[in-house]
Amino acid sequence: MKKDILLVALLVGTMLANAQPPAQNGQGNAPMEGAAIERSSLQLDINTMSQEQALKINSYISSQRGNRGFCATLGTALLGTASSITITEIMKLTQIRKNHKEEWNKMIKNECQYTESLAYIDNLTDFYSDGSKYGSLDPADLRFNGFTLNARNGGADVLRFYCHVDTDTTGLNEIFNHSKFRLVLDSLYFYPYRCHLPNMSANQMFPEKGKDYGRSTRFSFEERDNLMVSINFSISSSWYNEAIILAKDVELGTFSVQIPIDERSLTDSVYVYKAGTRGVKPLAINGDCFIVPRSYMPLPGGVAHWGTGEYNIKVTLTEQCNISKQMEKEWHRDYHRMKRMKKDKPVQRYFVDLYSQNGNTILRQVLETTSSTALGAAGLSTRGTTSGNMGNAAGGNAGGTGNAGASGAAGVPGGAGTPAGGGKP
Question: Domain boundaries in the chain?
């Protein structure tokens, strides 16, 4: 077991080291043959309450405690002629063209959507910082305070998202009177020219860098429109009530936010949203969630006591768009461009999904290399492919279509800080 862990750590260290930009060698910045590079990553951080925020909530709860009977148990409630020959040939050509249009529509639909996710994650810091003597749904000592989400493509930031628990007067009333909480979006940065669209790998196309295919291999507002970014979170939990009845993997609530990205709304090629900016309409996070129930755990002497609330999270990030009217008009020409791209002899690629968790920070990385020697030597499962839907593949624990799911290395890179600069390619 120790040998396996050392091999995995050695491999990840080697791959991440190789992922750094190579020294100039007279041939540009192309990576060395067989070097592993970061294809994409999704990092989730669980935010925690400041002492000031926690005291504010506890003070409110103390002032209202006599007006509410806390629920000690939650139970299971929460669950022929020359002419005819010509006509025949025209009909055949029409059918062929129809088939081509249907195939093109299918490929366009594939490359106009990209989805990445982190599956249910456990062993997070508990929802509350202390136990309770008041019951399963006592909201005192709330520790959880929203999420920070960072997505990258090829090592560059694509999205940075930060939200917190609503603790204004309305939010506190919701927590105390309905045992629910809501989330408020603080800031969001999105780089459309770095995003994962068009998702060409969904159509088994791996274009060579620098080669002109007559169509953009990166996102272009001239060819695409109605760009939309969607982020979804769901929270679930398991707990025991006072009757020692187990509620297992109960979904407590979901949150979602959809952000339309318009080229006119970009600042230096970056979409920027900051709550409270004058003249900017607030972006709402839809949905709500029950506060996490505490498990019943009596103390010696039969003293009633409830725990600190264990929970799991799932997050999904989706990028999607449509094609422009001009691209729709030129569909047949684009169809032949796509077919030529598919005919290019692809380089054999190997992918490995790495998961790591350091406290409240969870990271999923998809690493890509043209050599499986190092991966195989370490005993890691890989996905060797010249096709495959990498756009929606999230192998292993992420529940996608890939078949790799190697455990990640210990330790997680630090956050990317405030993003700046998103130049158009």
Answer: 42-346
